[in-house]
């Protein structure tokens, strides 16, 4: 399988690559349009700040390319948020692949939402073999509300989108690469799509 | 529900764990990667690696070690010790660390916290605070491995670094550290209520009840211990079962 991790200098690319290695899969790191287009599957990680990540994507013309992709695509953490329409973080316009807003947690609870929390209402092949209430690792201050595209949710304290799917675009707010056995299973499920 | 985190801390010198860690079923207890894997299997929620190497040569070894750890474990980990610039952090994050912890360098140059948050995001910036109580001064912040008293009051300093962009506070009470008499519940509670980011309680863990107190009485979001886990005085699966019975949300 030709698996490409989008490398645009705003991600914990290394951790995702290592997680795939543990599954016996070698992935290519690339920001090159042709390489990404030719991939069987694309993983789009991200940590950091939405506006600076968009700047990095635009500098590489990836903001034009990514919405046109048709192969299975997996956005992780900030990589999920970037697929949406607009983020309150830095009042930033995003890739607008999935017509959803990204909002800041307004709660008395601690922000960032950091640590292990549970998945609920699991849908689609991405969560094959996982139980309801499975724990995954989160670290984020912004979230996508529950919508028609939500394929798993988590509560903090209100439910938000733990994962999204729209056509070939899959995405997770949590970090499957840091979520132990459950996370590995989710990555395996994506690779099997 | 978001669970409370249990965090073993490993001291690293020249790429090896120190403190004469005692483990069965581990080929080489001095090998941080073997230990990290073991802790991950035991149900540790995160790990902290503290580099106590003094030499530049050793620092390079540490960056390589971070890469090796990231390659082999599938839970998050924080690295700290001797970090004083954006460039230092970039190397560690690129090698696969999830968070970095800064301590003395934040005291020396508070703007470093803001810079790190701007470059890498608050989610990966933990500020470690060593605090010590004296009758005359109250809870003051100490620097340079706890050898020098600063002018900062602990709660004020915690608020200041959070305003600058810290995403987490690792609070170690020097009065309690090594005593096994329990965490410093009063200052942990004060800091946990004063800031909006998660707080890790550290220093003084000696029993399972101490962890329950840190979570239920002091409202800590995570609790860290070293020798208690390393010397197998307390096993993480037992600790988590106990905490669950006490009504603490934990990942089992």
Structure description:
With 193 residues, chain A is an alpha/beta fold. Chain A is built from six helices and 13 strands. In chain A, the strands form three sheets. In chain A, strands 2-1-3-4-13-12-11 form a seven-stranded mixed sheet. A four-stranded mixed sheet of chain A has the order 6-5-7-10, covered by helices on one side. The longest helix of chain A is centred in the C-terminal third of the chain and has 12 residues. The mean pLDDT of chain A is 95. Chain B is globular and about 45 Å long. Chain B has ten helices and eleven strands. The longest helix of chain B is centred in the N-terminal third of the chain and has 17 residues. Chain B has an eight-stranded parallel beta barrel with strand order 1-3-4-5-6-9-10-11, surrounded by seven helices. In chain B, 38% of the residues lie in helices and 24% in strands. Chain B has a single domain, classed as Aldolase class I (TIM Barrel). Chain B has 252 residues and is an alpha/beta fold. The model of chain B has no long low-confidence stretch (mean pLDDT 92). Chain B starts with a strand and ends in a 7-residue tail after the last helix. Classes of the chains: A alpha/beta (193), B alpha/beta (252). At the A-B interface, helix 1, strand 8, strand 9 and helix 6 of A face helix 2 of B.
């Amino acid at each position: 399988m030709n698996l490409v991790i989008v490398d645009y200098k705003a991600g914990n690319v290394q951790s995702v690559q290592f997680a795939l290695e543990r599954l016996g899969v070698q992935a290519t790191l690339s920001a090159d349009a042709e390489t990404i287009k030719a991939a069987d599957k694309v993983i789009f990680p991200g940590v950091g700040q939405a506006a600076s990540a968009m700047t990095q994507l635009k500098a590489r013309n990836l903001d034009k390319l990514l919405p046109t992709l048709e192969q299975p695509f997996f956005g992780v953490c900030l990589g999920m948020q970037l697929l949406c329409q607009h983020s309150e973080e830095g009042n930033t316009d995003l890739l607008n692949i999935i017509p959803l807003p990204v909002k800041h947690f307004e709660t008395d609870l601690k922000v960032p939402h950091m640590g292990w929390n549970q998945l609920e209402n699991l849908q689609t092949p991405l969560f094959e073999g996982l139980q309801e209430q499975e724990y995954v690792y989160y670290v984020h201050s912004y979230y996508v509300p529950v919508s028609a595209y939500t394929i798993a949710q988590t509560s903090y304290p209100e439910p938000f989108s733990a994962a999204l799917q729209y056509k070939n675009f899959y995405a997770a707010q949590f970090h499957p690469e840091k979520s132990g056995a459950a996370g590995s299973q989710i990555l395996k499920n994506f690779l099997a799509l | 529900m978001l669970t409370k985190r249990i965090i073993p801390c490993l001291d690293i010198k020249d790429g090896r764990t120190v403190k004469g860690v005692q483990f069965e079923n581990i080929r080489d207890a001095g090998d941080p990667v073997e230990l990290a894997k073991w802790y991950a299997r035991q149900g540790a929620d995160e790990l902290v690696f503290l580099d106590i190497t003094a030499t530049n040569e050793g620092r390079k070894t540490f960056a390589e070690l971070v890469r090796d750890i990231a390659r082999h474990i599938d839970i998050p980990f924080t690295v700290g010790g001797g970090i004083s610039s954006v460039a230092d952090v970039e190397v560690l994050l690129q090698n696969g660390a999830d968070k970095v912890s800064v301590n003395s360098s934040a005291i020396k140059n508070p703007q470093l916290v803001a810079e790190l948050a701007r470059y890498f995001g608050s989610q990966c910036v933990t500020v470690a605070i060593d605090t010590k109580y004296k009758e005359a001064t109250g809870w003051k912040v100490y620097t340079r491995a706890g050898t020098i008293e600063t002018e900062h009051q602990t709660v004020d300093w915690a608020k200041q670094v959070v305003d600058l962009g810290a995403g987490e506070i690792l609070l170690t009470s020097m009065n309690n550290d090594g005593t096994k008499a329990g965490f410093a519940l009063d200052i942990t509670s004060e800091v946990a209520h004063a800031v909006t980011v998660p707080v890790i309680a550290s220093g003084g863990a000696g029993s399972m009840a101490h962890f329950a107190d840190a979570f239920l009485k002091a409202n800590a979001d995570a609790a860290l211990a070293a020798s208690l886990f390393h010397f197998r005085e307390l096993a993480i699966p037992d600790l988590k079962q106990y905490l669950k019975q006490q009504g603490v949300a934990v990942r089992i």
